[in-house]
Amino acid sequence: MPEICRFYGIVIRMYFRDHRPPHFHAEYGGYKATLRIEDLRVTDGRLPTRAERMVTEWAKQHRRELDEAWSRAERRESPGKIAPLE
How many domains, the chain? Predict the structure, then answer.
């Protein structure tokens, strides 16, 4: 699963040709969560509160890029990299 971003120990990934709805995976320590791009809700797993807030803030800053990365991954293309949380 390609890594699209890494910041503050958080790793963001996207699978190639993953199931809908569009989403990404976040890992921090031993925690893992899946978040929908549309509304940034956790749909599976969990993250510590502070890490989840940082992931949500990052995703708000880069929502358009996440949509584009999802489209590329659906076509089995590299989703590319997205800048870390500012």
Answer: 1
